[in-house]
Design a protein that fits this description.
Shape of chain B: globular
Structural class of chain C: mainly alpha
Chains: A alpha+beta (521), B mainly alpha (203), C mainly alpha (307)
Helix content of chain B: over 70%
Oligomer: heterotrimer
Distance between the termini of chain B: 55 Å
Structural class of chain B: mainly alpha
Number of helices of chain C: 10
Number of strands of chain C: 0
Number of strands of chain B: 0
Helix content of chain C: 55-70%
Distance between the termini of chain C: 35 Å
Largest sheet of chain C: none
Largest sheet of chain B: none
Radius of gyration of chain B: 17 Å
Largest interface: A-C, 30 and 31 residues
Shape of chain C: globular
C-alpha cells in the first residue's frame, strides 16, 4: 500500500490522530501513552509492518519513537509519544523490543511499565547509580566513578543434575572483541546460551551530539571498523535526504563501487574465518590473502585500507582517476580467478562439508520472530535485502534478485556469502561502466537549520542499518540514533547453538560474525 | 607389488564399509577397480598368459571409466549426498566389517592363495553394504564391490575361460547401467533414493 | 646398555623441538607464507623458562609435581625407542613400557587439566579421554600385530627382525595405516584435533594446559614435542626399518642416521600435507575414523596370524 493510503487507513481507524509525512517516505504518527499499544498492534495486524527499533529523545519531555518499516514498499512509519518518566513496554508485542527498552532505561532513566525483562543492559554493575549519560543534564565529558560493591547480574541457569555453566570471556584466549558468553551445557550439547555485551560502550551517540556536522562522518565510520563505508554512506544519505540533494551519476557509481569493495573484503574474511575455525587451514590462509589484495587495492585508490574518509555528504572526498578504474578491474580479475579455484576445493572437501552442513540452524520461524536482517536472515528463507526494498544510489538498476537459502545453517550462510561476493564483483564492474572520466574530489560545507529530522537505511555487511538524525543548534545534531544490525542479530546466535556440541560453537559464531562494537556503540 | 595392491584393495573395502559420503564411495570404488586392473597386469606379466591382460583392460575400462561415469550422472541429481540413517550405524559398520574379515581369514585358513581370501572379503563387505544401507546408491555400490570380489576370485583360479570372463564383465556393465537409470527414476518419483519409500508402492 | 643407545636418545631429545619446528615450517610453505624459523620452538622454550609461574588458587599439589613427572616420563620414553643403531642387547624397548609411559603422560595431563578448576580444563580432559577410549585398542592391536609378525615384545628386536625382511607386506601396510591414524589421535593432530587453534571451546589437548605458565608450560611443551617425535620414530623403525645399522662401524652408523632423518622428514611432510588439506572432524565423528583404523589393525592381525 502506498504511504498516502496507509495514512488514510490509519486516520480512518483512529480519527483525531495527528499524522505527518516527511522526506517522502517517512510517516510520523503522534500517539500518546494510552493508545500506543493499540496502535502498534493495529500496525502489525492490519498493515503487516516490521518492528525495527525504539529510541528516545529528550526535548521538554521525553519523546519515544517506535520505528516500523514496510519491506515491500520501502517506507517508514514512526509512532511517537511523549512521556515524563515512564516507558510503555512493548515486550511480548514487538519482538526484541525488550533490548531497546532496557537501553532507554539505562541511558535516560525512564521506568519501564509492564516489563518482563528488567535487567540493566548498557550499564554494567560497576557504574555509579543514577547516572543517565544521554540525558541533557549529563555534561559531555564528565567522568564516571567505578563502584566497589556490585550487585549480581542474573543469568538463566540450568539447575538439574548434570548441567554446568561455562563462562567464556570477556577476555578470550584469542585476540578478539570482548563479550561474555554463558553456556549451560549438559555434557557436550549446549542447553542454553546467554550473551552479555556492552563491554565496548563508548557513548558514541553522545559524542555525535557534540560534534560539528561536517566532521561527523569520521565519528560514524568508527562505530564499527568492518562497516566503515556503510556507516559513512548512511550518514551521507541522511544529510542528502534532509537537504533533498541530488548527486551526479558518476559519484553514485563510485559510492556503489566502494560499498561493494567493502562487502568483498569482509565476506572473504568471513569465509576464511569459517575455514579457519574448523581447522581447514589451506583455504583459510588463501582467502585471507585475497582479502589482503583487496585491502591493498583500497589503499592504492583512496589512501585508506578501510576506505575511510572517502564518502562524505553531498560529495566525494577523494579523486578516482581512470587509472584507478583500470587498477580495480585488473585486481578483481585476479582475485576472481583464484576465488573460483578455492571455492571448488572447499565445496568438495568431505571433512569440511561434514562440519558445516547441518550445524547452527536457525529456523525461519525464529528468524522472523527475532526480526533478523542481513545474510543470516536470508539464509533462513527471509527474502529481505535493503538494496532491493529501499534502493539507494544506483542499486535500483543493479540489484534484481535476492540471494537466499532455505535451511538456515552455517553452510547456507557460507553459500550466501559466496553468492554476495560474486554479486559484488558483478556490481563493481557494472558501476564502473558508468565512470567514464576522472571523478574529482568535491566537498562542500554543510549548514542545516535546527529542527530537521530524517531516517536513512543502508545494507551493511551485517544487515540493515537505520540512522535517525534531528538537527539542533550550532550546526550539530541534537540526537543521532543508530539502529545497528548486530543489535538485533546477536540473539539469533543463542538459538543457532541449541543442540550443538560445545566445540561447534566457534563455527556457529563465526558463521554469524556479528560485530560487538556496533552493538555496543 | 602384488602385496601392496592387495593391501590397497582391502583398505578401500574397509573404508567403503564405514564411511557414509557418496562421493567418497565412488572414489573408493574407482581406486579399488584400478588396483584390481593393475593386479591383473602384474599377474599377466608374471605368468606370461595373455588372458590376464584382457581381463585387466576390460576391468579398467568398465570399472574405472564407464561405471563411475554412470554413477556420477545419477548422483548429480541427488540432493542429499550422504547416507543419513544406515541400518547399522556409524562406527559399528567398520567394527563389524573388521570382525567379519577376521572370521573369514580364520575360516579359510587352508587356502594359500591370497586372492581367494581377498575376493571373499570383498564379497562379504559388498554384501554388508547391500544389507546395511538404505540408499539405493550405496546398495548399488555394494553390488559392484561384490562383483570386484568375483573378479578377484576368478583371478586366483588357474584356468578360466576368456569367454566367461567377458560375459561376466558385460553383465556387470549392463546391470549397472540399468541400476543407474532406475535410481534416476526413483529419485524423480520420490525425490529421494531412500528405498524405504519403495514399500509405499505395495498395497 | 651400550653407550651409543644413550647418545642417540639424547640426540633425539635435543632434536625434538627441531622436528616440530620443521613441521610448522613445512605447513607454512604449503599454505603459501614464509612461516617462523625452524629453530622457533627452542626460542619459545627459552622464553618460557625465563618467565615466572602463576598458580591458580584452587590448585593442589598436583600442579606442583605433575609437570616434572610428565617431563621425566617423556624423557624416559625417548630412551626406549631405537633410532639408528641396533646393538645386541635390547635395552629398555619393551612395547608395554612404551604404552604405559604414554599412559602416565596422559593421566598426569588430564589431572592437571582438572586441577586448575576451570571449565575448559575439565572439558579438555573429558574429550581427550573420550578419544583415547577409541584409540587405545588400536595401539594394543598394533602391538599384537608386531608381536605376531616378529615374535618379540621388544621394539628394538622387532626393528632388527623387520629390517631383515617382511613376511607379509599386505598386512604390514594395513597395520602401518592403522598406526598412522593412532599417531594422529594420540598426538592431537588433524583430523582429530587442531593444534593451532586459539579458540578455547574447540581445544582438546591445549585446553588442559591453559592455566599453566612459565616453567610448567615449558615442561609440558617439551614433553608434547617428545611424544610426537617418539611416536614417529616408533613408526619409522617398526614399519620401515630398512637401513638400520646393526654394527657399530662409522659408515653404517652415518648412513643409518641420515636415513633416519630423511624418513622422519618424509613423515613430517605427510603429516603437514594431511593437516593442510583436511579440516578437523566433528568430535563425535572421530570414533568412525578410529573404528576404521581398528578394522585395519584387526585385518592385519588376521592375515599375519594365519600364515
Amino acid at each position: 500500500m502506498r504511504l498516502q493510503e496507509i495514512k488514510d487507513a490509519i486516520l480512518a481507524g483512529n480519527p483525531g490522530l495527528n499524522t505527518e509525512i516527511k522526506n517522502k517516505n517517512e510517516l510520523f504518527v503522534y500517539a500518546d501513552k494510552d493508545n500506543i499499544i493499540k496502535i502498534t498492534e493495529c500496525m502489525f495486524r492490519d498493515f503487516r509492518m516490521y518492528f525495527a527499533g525504539e529510541f528516545c529523545m529528550q526535548e521538554d519531555m521525553f519523546v519515544i519513537s517506535v520505528i516500523l518499516t514496510s519491506r515491500k514498499q520501502g517506507y517508514f512509519v514512526i509512532i511517537r509519544y511523549e512521556t515524563e518518566g515512564e516507558l510503555i513496554s512493548l515486550q511480548g508485542l514487538a519482538n526484541q523490543s525488550g533490548l531497546f527498552e532496557r537501553e532507554i532505561r539505562d541511558l535516560f532513566g525512564l521506568e519501564i511499565v509492564g516489563a518482563i525483562d528488567n535487567r540493566h543492559l548498557v550499564k554494567h554493575e560497576e557504574w555509579e547509580k543514577d547516572v543517565y549519560p544521554l540525558c541533557k543534564d549529563f555534561t559531555y565529558g564528565r567522568k564516571i566513578r567505578n563502584l566497589n560493591e556490585t550487585e549480581v547480574y542474573r543469568f538463566k541457569e540450568v539447575t538439574n543434575g548434570g548441567g554446568y555453566q561455562i563462562p567464556v570471556g570477556p577476555v578470550h584466549a584469542g585476540i578478539i572483541e570482548p563479550g561474555h558468553f554463558r553456556f549451560s551445557a549438559i555434557g557436550e550439547p549446549i542447553e542454553n546460551l546467554e550473551i552479555r555485551l556492552m563491554y565496548k560502550h563508548r557513548g558514541i551517540e553522545k559524542i555525535c551530539e557534540n560534534t560539528d556536522i561536517n566532521r561527523l562522518n569520521l565519528i560514524l565510520e568508527r562505530v564499527s571498523g568492518e562497516s566503515s563505508v556503510a556507516y559513512a554512506e548512511a550518514y551521507a544519505l541522511l544529510i542528502e535526504k534532509i537537504l533533498d540533494y541530488n548527486l551526479p551519476e558518476d559519484i553514485k557509481a563510485v559510492r556503489v563501487v566502494l560499498l561493494e569493495l567493502e562487502r568483498t573484503y569482509n565476506y572473504l574474511d568471513d569465509i576464511g574465518g569459517i575455514c579457519l575455525d574448523v581447522g581447514f587451514s589451506y583455504p583459510a590462509k588463501k582467502f585471507a590473502y585475497l582479502s589482503e589484495m583487496i585491502h591493498q587495492l583500497c589503499e592504492r585508490i583512496t589512501g585508506s585500507r578501510f576506505l575511510r574518509n572517502v564518502i562524505v555528504p553531498c560529495g566525494l572526498n577523494s579523486k578516482i582517476t581512470l587509472a584507478n578504474k583500470a587498477d580495480i578491474l585488473e585486481t578483481l580479475q585476479m582475485v576472481e580467478k583464484r576465488f573460483d579455484g578455492l571455492l571448488d576445493i572447499t565445496l568438495n572437501a568431505v571433512s569440511f562439508l561434514d562440519r558445516v552442513e547441518d550445524t547452527g540452524i536457525v529456523e525461519n520461524k525464529i528468524a522472523k520472530s527475532l526480526n533478523m536482517t542481513g545474510v543470516v536472515a536470508r539464509a533462513s528463507d527471509i527474502h529481505y535485502d535493503v538494496r532491493k526494498s529501499f534502493p539507494y544510489e544506483i542499486y535500483q538498476s543493479l540489484k534484481k534478485e535476492i540471494n537466499f537459502e532455505k535451511t538456515g545453517g552455517a553452510f547456507e550462510r557460507y553459500k550466501i556469502k559466496i553468492a554476495e561476493i560474486k554479486d559484488a564483483f558483478l556490481f563493481i564492474r557494472q558501476a564502473l561502466n558508468l565512470v567514464e572520466n576522472d571523478v574529482n574530489k568535491c566537498r562542500e560545507k554543510i549548514n542545516i537549520e535546527p529542527g530537521v529530522e530524517g531516517f536513512s537505511i543502508v545494507e551493511t555487511v551485517k544487515g540493515e542499518l537505520i540512522v535517525y538524525g534531528k538537527t539542533g543548534l550550532n550546526n550539530r545534531f541534537e540526537r543521532l540514533y543508530m539502529r545497528t544490525p548486530s543489535f538485533m542479530n546477536w540473539e539469533g546466535l543463542t538459538f543457532a547453538v541449541l543442540g550443538e556440541i560445545v566445540p561447534d560453537f566457534p563455527l556457529c559464531n563465526k558463521s554469524f560474525n556479528m560485530s560487538y562494537s556496533e552493538n555496543d556503540r | 607389488m602384488l602385496e601392496i595392491l592387495t593391501a590397497v584393495i582391502l583398505i578401500t573395502a574397509i573404508i567403503m564399509a564405514g564411511f557414509r559420503r557418496i562421493n567418497l564411495l565412488t572414489k573408493g570404488f574407482r581406486i579399488q577397480s584400478l588396483a584390481i586392473g593393475l593386479l591383473c597386469f602384474a599377474l599377466g606379466y608374471l605368468s606370461g598368459e595373455s588372458h590376464y591382460y584382457v581381463i585387466g583392460v576390460l576391468t579398467l575400462i568398465t570399472k574405472t571409466v564407464l561405471i563411475p561415469h554412470f554413477m556420477n550422472r545419477s548422483i548429480k541429481e541427488l540432493s542429499a549426498n550422504r547416507e543419513m540413517d544406515p541400518i547399522i550405524n556409524g562406527w559399528w559398520s567398520s567394527v563389524i566389517a573388521g570382525i567379519f574379515i577376521a572370521v573369514i581369514y580364520v575360516v579359510m585358513e587352508g587356502f594359500n592363495s591370497d586372492f581367494i581370501i581377498a575376493g571373499v572379503v570383498l564379497l562379504v563387505t559388498g554384501a554388508l553394504m547391500l544389507v546395511a544401507r538404505k540408499k539405493a546408491i550405496t546398495q548399488m555400490t555394494g553390488f559392484l564391490v561384490m562383483e570386484n570380489g568375483l573378479v578377484l576370485l576368478e583371478l586366483s583360479m588357474i584356468k578360466m575361460g576368456l569367454l566367461i570372463d567377458i560375459l561376466i564383465i558385460l553383465e556387470v556393465l549392463l546391470i549397472s547401467a540399468i541400476m543407474a537409470i532406475m535410481i534416476f527414476y526413483i529419485n524423480k518419483v520420490f525425490h529421494s533414493v531412500n528405498t524405504d519409500y519403495l514399500s509405499n508402492l505395495k498395497d | 646398555m651400550s653407550i651409543i643407545y644413550i647418545i642417540q636418545s639424547l640426540l633425539l631429545i635435543a632434536g625434538a623441538p627441531l622436528f616440530v619446528g620443521s613441521l610448522r615450517r613445512l605447513k607454512a610453505v604449503l599454505r603459501g607464507y614464509k612461516g617462523a624459523p625452524v629453530l622457533q620452538p627452542y626460542y619459545e622454550l627459552m622464553k618460557l623458562f625465563s618467565k615466572g609461574r602463576v598458580l591458580s588458587g584452587n590448585s593442589s599439589f598436583i600442579t606442583s609435581i605433575a609437570p616434572a613427572i610428565v617431563l621425566a616420563a617423556s624423557i624416559l620414553l625417548a630412551f626406549t625407542v631405537p633410532v639408528a643403531y641396533i646393538g645386541s642387547d635390547y635395552g629398555l624397548g619393551n612395547i608395554f613400557v612404551i604404552i604405559f609411559l604414554m599412559a602416565i603422560l596422559k593421566f598426569m595431563t588430564v589431572l592437571i587439566g582438572l586441577d586448575s578448576a576451570s571449565a575448559f580444563g575439565g572439558m579438555g580432559g573429558s574429550r581427550e579421554l573420550f578419544i583415547s577410549m577409541f584409540a587405545e585398542p588400536i595401539g594394543f592391536l598394533t602391538a599384537a600385530f608386531l608381536y605376531f609378525e616378529a615374535g618379540s615384545f621388544n621394539i628394538i628386536e622387532i626393528t632388527y627382525i623387520n629390517s631383515r625382511g617382511i613376511a607379509e607386506p599386505a598386512a604390514h601396510i594395513m597395520a602401518a595405516v592403522a598406526f598412522l591414524l593412532w599417531i594422529a589421535a594420540e598426538n592431537t593432530r588433524i583430523p582429530v584435533d587442531n593444534p593451532e587453534t586459539h579458540l578455547e571451546l574447540t581445544m582438546i589437548h591445549e585446553a588442559m594446559l591453559l592455566d599453566l605458565s612459565g616453567r610448567d608450560l615449558a615442561y609440558f611443551e617439551l614433553s608434547t614435542y617428545l611424544k610426537l617425535t617418539v611416536s614417529m620414530a616408533l613408526f619409522v623403525n617398526a614399519f620401515i626399518p630398512f637401513g638400520i645399522a646393526a654394527s657399530a662401524s662409522g659408515s653404517f652408523l652415518l648412513t643409518a642416521f641420515v636415513l633416519f632423518v630423511v624418513k622422519m622428514l618424509i613423515m613430517l611432510s605427510m603429516l603437514a600435507v594431511t593437516e593442510t588439506i583436511m579440516a578437523k572432524f566433528r568430535l563425535f565423528r572421530a570414533p568412525e575414523l578410529l573404528a576404521t583404523s581398528f578394522c585395519f589393525a584387526l585385518t592385519a592381525i588376521a592375515i599375519v596370524y594365519l600364515h
